[in-house]
Write a structure and sequence with these properties.
The complex is a heteropentamer, with one copy of chain A (216 residues), two copies of chain B (225 residues) and two copies of chain C (366 residues). Chain A is of the alpha/beta class and 216 residues long. Chain A has helices at residues 5-19, 30-38, 52-59, 86-91, 107-119, 122-125, 135-143, 190-199, 202-210; strands at 45-47, 65-71, 73-77, 98-101, 129-132, 149-153, 164-167, 176-182. Helix content of chain A is 38%, strand content 18%. Chain B has helices spanning 7-36, 42-50, 57-68, 73-82, 90-116, 119-125, 131-142, 144-160, 163-169, 179-188, 192-224. The chains are: A alpha/beta (216), B mainly alpha (225), C alpha+beta (366). Bound molecules: adenosine-5'-triphosphate (2 copies) and magnesium ion (2 copies).
């Protein structure tokens, strides 16, 4: 998944330092990668942004799948005071557009909708919603100033981000579980299997956590 | 497979029609100027007009997003002047698409104008036609084939492209969600059957439109001899 | 008065013309292929922006160091050597294009032009489907409908056959007389020039070598080398005196009566008759029993022997000067010298119809 | 023998020609503007695929119901009325284009053509920068370098001045004589035609009205109406007998000696001399003291009075028939009738240089 | 911001150069045929050649992916014939990009050929040039301006497009990861600084290339007069 690319690169570097195995990383939207995998793409493993795609792949004979990280949904409104109430902020007229990831495509998007509904004012702000195809595009919309607020991945937030930053409480949305799965193409590749095992080591988990993910 | 929502199709057609129309309005004088000028700036402008094609659409969209956003000077000016933001609006889509399809309009028109040579324009000048007059009554009709190419390329490109549109438009149903985004979504969400249906509709519709355009053009050419 | 003082340089060619042109009548521009005729017309029309110098039409300055009137504001008509009809319009459309932009200006109507140039059957046709001569006629018609202050014509009749020429020429003459549009006329055909023009510009390698009233130039042995021997000839004035029963017209000239095949004009009309030097035979004694009707008493005024076998004799007959081109052998045999009285025999039918022109109003001096 | 039996219909025009053309010498195609000359040439060249019927060149069938030889395989050269030089090539490039594709075929070399048409100074130029006449010359040169089996020329000299024509024509004649390439030549200029051609096709409204040996047609009062009065005239054979000191050439004809301005040819050369009917004066008595050198004894063979003031007299002088155009008034005054003996006065210089042609090998019969 | 990897740039240039070259080879005869034919199929073919533009690139890529995959007849045939799969290979990218940029090559060329008219070809025929010969020696040089347009549009479009390429090529570094994908990735993964650098490199490089092309063209035009 695109949102995990930064972390994955660092993991690969660390893995190489440990084992000497080179891991090549291909990023893309999960849907695109799925289409490619079913058409015989030479990928060994998939770090998906969701759980359903690996599940589907497992049903088609790939596998096994297991979670490697949980996404953290964050509201970011760079122009607002850090201590403002997020609920009030979202309904403020000064916030004309709220960027989210496409709920059809990205688990973060689906999580955002769920959280807004749970908070009870989804209908009030539905007209303000603009969608990026993924969390990266939603972030771009906020970053550029085009949208005054947006729901993004904690992992995407730069360290020096200003303004209102609010990690949505995890009980407001279903867990954004990101699963990894070993693909058929990687069955004979020990390095692929090794990397999968590496993902759940404490060293790897530390890296993942540093990138703003919750751990399984 | 759910019922197919045709809203994005109409939105797309409206967008493509408006973009193509405005683009031709804008590109014709630019292409004409390029074809006539002896300015040393000519190759520079020519190279610039081709540049929108070089960046990946999403990336171009990203930069346009930054340019259009109310935080930028241009975006702020626009908000002040019109009360609307350019981002996430149909107007913004139109401007972004125009920029992106600019090369498809300018280049064929310029080529057509250049192939005219000076003779017909000189002849028109000797019939008391002002430069403006002869542009409309001689250059434009004689560059008809260039207009056809420019129109077809701009229109179809606007139909199909979505990278720029997605970034700048924000995929708002009924406002900025065009058909290309809809098809893309279906593919990404593995709803292939829906994708096939929408693609087929778009393809058949486009094919029929193009067929009509080309058949009319052929008849016109035959009459002209 | 069209005043020119211009320079235009191409690699290997330089047009340099300082000249005044009359603003009435037809001025012929005559010169060899490549001598700069078309280029001069383009400069006058304002189509050569690289030309430097000064162009003024009457009080209007069209071009000088600071100013440049664009072509479409000069009010000129131009018949291009390569016609340049608009391919996207029919012949009617081409005519209409000119007509519409010249509404209200004095000049011929669309119907007149169509009739005069016989364009009726071609109106609905595209230029690409016309024959060479048909294109020329349409281009002439289009230029006339511009109702110009001055008409520039670049070999307009080159693609036409004799019969067509004989139809189109009188129409141009009528226009010249009725509307008074001055015409600058490029031609390779001296018969055409002599018939139409009142003034003549000879251009050679980009420079005007001779300029003046047609009649003076054609009767001057001096110009002959520039014109080429075969075109030498004089133009004399005549008045139509009578129309005889057997189809001949009787003309009155200061030299005596002349008989020509019927000229369709009113009795009393002033005419200009061209007599080619090579169509004149000289005799010391009054000849009898000849089929030639026109025998004019004359006196030799000048005798020029060239390097070739020919000699050019200038003669005064009445008030007119005419030229005769004979062989040196004959000149010797007849013992001709300035002052010698003799007879000039002109075959009536050798005065070509193309060389009869209706005289214009008094000729402007160059 | 080029055998034609073709039909081509345009809206409002129908070309219908069944005709054999000789495969040697120059055949002139003469007719009014719009009569179908260019179209006929295009059909022969294979450029009008809509034409139906049969075209055969000798034994090669170029077109019939089943077969169509494409233009580039017919081995023809074509000088288009609108030149059609390639704008992306220089003049040299245009010549080279033809030359390269005709390697090894008999015909003039590139240098010869360049010299003959004076193309040297133009070689590095683009066609767009050439004057009208310069373009024509380059187009002629290009067609010659195709070294064709037959050359189709559509008014190739229309844009040239007299002096240029006088340079180019002899070169075409030399080609005709040396290489023997047959030429089908469209022209509006009868002097050109009479000088060059051995055969003549008159076309009118898409049909051939007269066809035959040039000499027969020009001397036949019958053809005159089709040609227009001014072009009537006869072509007679002569042999160059002597070059006199005073620049005259003495010719021997069956009618007696003729004197012409110097002709550059070897003593003994066979020549064809065109005498326009209107350049002949008749006298009942032998005239004396005239500047005209050529006085031929003759007998009237036919007398045609037209509706106009003129009369056309056919005369036998020696073995030749010549025509004289005089007024009816003179015919009556001189009491002319078939059988009347008289004298034909021909001004030596009135036989134009353009009307002297070197005679070809025996003329093929149509 | 990490050191910028220029590998994708070279890969892209190779791809764009190969695609443009092959595309012109393919498009020239097709455009010529279209410009000359009187066949009734002409408008149909014309409409078909414009269709690749209508589908969103990713979606077109999706269908190409299905077509190229060894599971399809065509893909299987390819594997048998060459031993390679078309999907996720450079060859596959080339074919996919060619298909996608086809309209940009065919349309301007056809317009250029049509504006020639018949006169120069007839003249060439009378100089003994066969149809093949005159196509190369007359039609092509006279359609130069059309080639310039076709080349610039095809080349820049291949530089910038990534939807098709991403789908068919699979974004494999050194093999199918072109610069447009790299920039796209940087934007998507919020490595904006890297994206800016790569975009700037691509833009400057393209601008300079285009400037050179147009300046040369201008000089050539000036010599031609
Ligand atoms: N654009 C140009 N570049 C270079 N030389 C040129 C250009 N235009 C004309 N010339 C040259 O200038 C000279 C004059 O050309 P112009 O067309 O005026 O001749 P012209 O008298 O009209 O001849 P013609 O009777 O053959 O038409 C010619 O030698 C021609 O080659
Ligand atoms: N494509 C066409 N469609 C319709 N009519 C045509 C077409 N081509 C030629 N014609 C007509 O056919 C007739 C003969 O044309 P053609 O060009 O052969 O004449 P031409 O004898 O060469 O005349 P010119 O001396 O004026 O060149 C003309 O009346 C012309 O208008
Ligand atoms: Mg000229
Ligand atoms: Mg013709």
């Amino acid at each position: 998944a695109a949102n995990f690319a930064g972390a994955a690169t660092e993991l690969a570097t660390a893995y190489k330092a440990d084992t000497g195995h080179d891991v090549q990383i291909t990023t893309g939207s999960t849907g695109k990668l799925y289409a490619q995998i079913t058409q015989g793409a030479p990928f060994d493993l998939l770090l998906s942004a969701d759980a359903s795609t690996p599940e589907r792949l497992a049903a088609e004979g790939h596998g096994p799948a297991f979670p490697y990280a949980f996404g953290v949904l964050t509201l970011w409104a760079p122009g607002m005071a850090p201590d403002r109430d997020p609920t009030v902020t979202l309904q403020d007229v000064a916030v004309r557009h709220i960027a989210i990831a496409n709920p059809e495509l990205a688990p973060y998007g689906a999580a955002t909708i769920a959280a807004l509904k749970a908070m009870g004012f989804y209908n009030a702000i539905a007209g303000k919603i603009v969608m990026g195809q993924n969390i990266g595009q939603a972030f771009a919309m906020v970053e550029s100033g085009a949208a005054e607020a947006g729901f993004i991945a904690r992992s995407a937030l730069p360290a020096d981000a200003k303004g209102l930053i609010w990690n949505v409480s995890p009980d407001l949305y279903p867990a954004i579980r990101q699963d990894a799965i070993l693909l058929q193409h990687g069955n004979d590749n020990p390095a692929a299997k090794g990397f999968l095992s590496y993902l759940v080591t404490p060293a790897a988990q530390a890296i993942i956590a540093r990138y703003g993910y919750a751990l399984p | 497979m759910s019922g197919v929502d045709l809203g994005p199709l109409w939105l797309t057609l409206r967008l493509a029609a408006i973009v193509t129309f405005l683009l031709l309005l804008l590109a014709a004088p630019l292409a004409w100027w390029l074809s006539q000028t002896r300015s040393r700036a000519k190759p520079v402008i020519e190279a610039l007009t081709a540049l929108p094609l070089v960046l990946p659409p999403t990336v171009l969209g990203f930069y346009l997003l930054i340019l259009f956003s109310p935080k930028s000077t241009f975006g702020a000016f626009w908000v002040q002047a019109t009360g609307e933001t350019l981002t996430f609006s149909f107007t913004g889509l139109v401007i972004a698409s125009m920029l992106y399809s600019l090369p498809f309009a300018v280049q064929p028109l310029q080529a057509a104008f250049e192939s005219l040579g000076r003779a017909p324009m000189e002849a028109a000048a000797m019939l008391r036609a002002s430069p403006f007059d002869r542009f409309f009554t001689v250059a434009l009709p004689l560059a008809k084939r260039g207009f056809l190419t420019a129109t077809v390329l701009s229109f179809t490109h606007t139909l199909g492209e979505f990278g720029v549109v997605l970034m700048v438009g924000g995929n708002i149903p009924g406002k900025t969600k065009v058909i290309s985004i809809a098809i893309y979504e279906h593919v990404e969400t593995i709803r292939y059957a829906d994708a096939h249906v929408l693609s087929a509709i778009l393809l058949v519709f486009s094919f029929v439109t193009l067929l009509i355009v080309y058949s009319l053009n052929r008849q016109a050419a035959r009459i002209t001899g | 008065m069209l005043t020119l003082d211009i320079t235009l340089r191409f690699p290997g060619f330089c047009l340099q013309v300082a000249q005044k042109l009359p603003q009435t009548g037809i001025t012929a521009l005559f010169g060899r292929s490549g001598s700069g005729k078309s280029t001069l017309l383009r400069v006058i029309a304002g189509l050569e922006s690289r030309a430097t110098g000064r162009v003024a039409y009457g009080d209007d300055i069209w071009q000088d160091a600071r100013h440049f009137t664009p072509p479409h504001k000069r009010g000129l008509g131009y018949v291009f050597q390569d016609t340049r009809l608009f391919p996207h319009l029919t012949v009617a459309g081409n005519l209409h294009y000119a007509d519409r932009r010249a509404r209200g200006l004095p000049g011929p109507t669309r119907d007149e032009v169509t009739a005069a140039l016989d364009l009726g059957p071609l109106l609905q046709r595209r230029p690409q489907t016309l024959s060479g001569g048909e294109q020329s006629r349409a281009a002439i018609g289009r230029a006339l409908l511009t109702r110009p202050r001055m008409l520039l014509m670049d070999e307009p009749l080159a693609a036409l056959d004799e019969a067509r020429r004989a139809e189109v020429l009188p129409y141009l003459e009528r226009l010249r007389d009725r509307i008074g549009t001055p015409i600058l006329y490029v031609s390779h055909n001296m018969a055409e020039v002599a018939r139409l023009a009142s003034h003549l510009l000879l251009i050679d390698a980009g420079r005007i070598s001779h300029a003046g009233a047609l009649q003076d130039l054609l009767a001057s042995p001096d110009t002959i080398s520039a014109l080429g021997v075969r075109e030498a000839g004089a133009v004399i004035h005549a008045r139509l005196a009578a129309q005889d029963d057997d189809g001949l017209s009787q003309l009155h000239t200061s030299a005596g009566p002349l008989y020509l095949p019927r000229i369709d004009a009113a009795i009393g009309t002033s005419l200009r008759i061209r007599i080619l030097a090579q169509d004149v035979i000289l005799s010391r004694t009054a000849p009898t029993g000849l089929s030639a009707l026109n025998i004019l008493p004359a006196t030799v005024t000048e005798l020029h022997s060239g390097s070739g076998p020919g000699a050019l004799v200038q003669l005064r007959t009445g008030d007119e000067l005419i030229l005769a081109r004979i062989t040196r052998r004959s000149a010797t045999a007849l013992d001709l010298a300035p002052g010698t009285p003799c007879f000039a025999i002109v075959k009536s039918v050798s005065v070509a119809p193309g060389n009869i022109g209706k005289d214009r109003a008094p000729t402007a001096k160059l």
